[in-house]
TrEMBL record:
Protein name per UniProt: DNA helicase RecQ
GO CC aspect terms: bacterial nucleoid; cytoplasm; replisome
Cofactor(s) needed: Mg(2+); Zn(2+)
UniProt keyword annotation of Membrane present: no
Domain Helicase ATP-binding stretches: 26-192
Lineage, highest ranks first: Bacteria, Pseudomonadati, Pseudomonadota, Alphaproteobacteria, Sphingomonadales
CDD domains per the UniProt record, alphabetical: DEXHc_RecQ
Pfam families: DEAD, Helicase_C, HRDC, RecQ_Zn_bind, RQC
Encoding gene, per UniProt annotation: recQ
Family recorded in the similarity comment: Belongs to the helicase family. RecQ subfamily.
Length: 589
């Protein structure tokens, strides 16, 4: 007889109620139905299969794309008393795990898609049919998704071999086309899709043109004392930036990329997971396997590959629901490189890639709400303003820069479409430049036609033209007219330019701290958590989240039963850690 999900929610996870669509998803799973759940990062997707795994008879098989992600979720499940294990290439106890599965001694079994699709694993499942298939990061099954993995396409035969076993696909990032493909690839009916919405209201979005990036990122870190991720675009850039930030006084900064020695890479990741203030500078390969809830900021040092990728990567901030920030620093050259990569793809995929680049252009170029741009991309109808992005908090002005844009494009054309931005600016402003004079460009009709306040518009106009594909860059960095230059030159299209907004007060380090009110009890509870985590060999957040500690500090429970009413304190954790935290609370009573 299945156990009551609501009672398990409180007893195991310590939560008084379901969040969002969790209850609807769990109800479908408990009824044996096939479901696709679209839930934003931080909305509690893992609970949607962890809870049924305990409630149902048998074991839930979870297919997950990364070993690090599996082991992270494994620790969290075991901490609340769920009998969980994984079968991966680095797990030496695979024989014991298989025996536990056959003996009915597991609630959860995590596997990679490569193993799940093999005949050996299917034979294991025939010995004891599972209670549920959960396919995490389900967008990986779709060629239309931003992170397609061919091995996910091999899962369907496994699922169909057990037609009576419910299947639950979960993802945070899937546009309408990708969602339809997931349903088809995994054999889930359209009426089995549940969408909770994509909004992450606790994340503050901000987009900045790169302008002295080292100083920009140092300014950001000065206001962010908590854990953070900075995504760089190359391996070399991660190491260079990590060294630079360390030299500027950030206490702990490390680098992560696929070229590092595996032992170093693994050690850096483990240190980040356990830290309460480390900054990781990484390529985008880092983070998908991290279930760290207390990341306070994510910064992109360059343009992400797609809106879906940006949403997922920025969504690694604030998974605990606490305030977090996502910063995107971009340059016009990012768009040029992205368009050049299109021609490396097979022709059938080029159109989709152009659409992705255009969507990113709309995000960085908008003078309106950033969140609204993101949410509309995923098919939602958001309010015009969100109150928690840079443009909503400090609305920028915009001007019609069409005439300046036409001058810029004309100068590119008349100089032969082979010179960079600085040369074009020198021609347009009539600067006394030897290079300009030697090539006779001081005698062109466009020489010296820009002056006064219009000079300040040239650089942002050049960025806007490259975003719109009106300017392209050749292999030597020279500017050429792009396919969308002609309608601007003819006056058929306008170029509106968003001006930098007025500066507002930046958050101070205390604003972004875990303990902004400097409560000594909270600091003591955090120290207790840190000590218990070190003893148990787990990250501090596996013991309790900061939000749980803040609630303890606010309500000051004076008994185990009262402590058990705090959100996030389930039966297992109450038994394991209750006395230690009560001792701290009583000391401050």
């Amino acid at each position: 007889m299945p156990r009551d999900p609501r009672q398990l929610l409180h007893d195991i996870f310590g939560f008084p109620a379901f969040r969002g669509v969790q209850e609807a998803v769990v109800a479908r799973v408990m009824a044996g139905q096939r479901t696709l759940a679209i839930m934003p990062t931080g909305a509690g997707k893992s609970l949607c299969y962890q809870l049924p795994a305990v409630a149902l008879e048998g074991c839930c098989v979870v297919v997950s794309p990364l070993i690090a992600l599996m082991h992270d979720q494994l620790r969290a499940a075991q901490a609340v008393g769920i009998r969980a294990a994984s079968l991966t290439s680095v797990d030496a106890d695979w024989r014991e795990t298989q025996a536990r599965y056959r003996d009915g001694d597991l609630d959860l079994l995590y596997v990679a898609p490569e193993r799940a699709s093999g005949e050996g694993f299917r034979s294991l499942l025939r010995s004891a049919p599972p209670a549920l298939f959960a396919i995490d990061e389900a967008h990986c099954v779709s060629e239309w998704g931003h992170d397609f993995r061919p091995d996910y396409r091999l899962l369907r035969p496994l699922l169909d071999a057990f037609p009576d076993v419910p299947r639950l696909a979960l993802t945070a990032t899937a546009d309408a086309h990708t969602r339809t493909d997931i349903l088809h690839q995994l054999g889930i009916a359209a009426d089995g899709m549940i969408i909770s919405g994509f909004d992450r209201p606790n994340i503050r979005y901000a987009v900045h043109p790169r302008d002295g990036f080292t100083a920009q990122i140092a300014d950001l870190l000065a206001t962010q004392p908590g854990p953070g991720i900075i995504y760089a675009q190359t391996r070399a850039a991660t190491e260079k930036m990590a060294a630079s930030l360390s030299a500027k006084g950030r206490r702990e900064v490390r680098a992560y990329h696929a070229g590092l020695d595996p032992a170093v890479r693994s050690a850096n990741q483990a240190a980040f997971i356990a830290s309460e203030d480390m900054v990781m500078v990484a390529t985008v390969a880092f983070g998908m396997g991290i279930d760290k809830p207390d990341v306070r900021f994510v910064a992109h040092a360059g343009l992400p590959k797609s809106i879906e990728g940006y949403y997922q990567e920025s969504g690694r901030a604030g998974r605990d629901g606490e305030p977090a920030e996502a910063h995107l620093f971009w340059g016009a050259e990012d768009f040029a490189r992205a368009r050049q990569r299109i021609f490396e793809l097979e022709e059938a995929r080029q159109g989709g890639e152009r659409t992705r680049i255009a969507a990113l252009g709309a995000l960085v170029e908008t003078g309106g709400c950033r969140r609204a741009v993101l949410l509309r991309h995923f098919g939602e109808d958001p309010p015009a303003t969100c109150g928690n992005c840079d443009n909503c908090l400090s609305p920028p002005a915009s001007i019609d820069a069409t005439e300046t844009a036409r001058k810029f494009l004309s100068a590119v054309y008349r100089t032969g479409q082979s010179f960079g931005v600085q040369h074009i600016e020198a021609v347009l402003t009539g600067a006394p430049n030897d290079k300009v004079r030697q090539r006779g460009h001081d005698r062109l009709s466009v020489s010296g036609i820009v002056s006064g306040e219009e000079v300040a518009l040239l650089r942002p106009v050049s960025r806007a033209l490259r975003i719109r594909d009106a300017l392209e860059t050749n292999e030597h960095g020279g500017l050429m007219l792009g396919p969308h230059a002609r309608p601007i030159l003819r006056g058929e299209e306008t170029v509106s330019l968003v001006l930098p907004p007025r500066r507002t007060r930046r958050r101070t380090a205390r604003d972004g701290a875990a303990n902004p009110s400097d409560d000594p009890l909270f600091d003591a509870l955090r120290a207790c958590r840190r000590e218990l985590a070190q003893e148990a060999g787990v990250p501090p957040y596996v013991i309790f989240h900061d939000s749980t500690l803040r609630e303890m500090a606010q309500y000051r429970p004076d008994s185990l039963s009262a402590l058990g009413t705090i959100s996030g304190v389930g039966t297992r954790k109450l038994e394991a850690y209750g006395d230690a935290f009560l001792a701290i609370l009583r000391r401050f009573a």
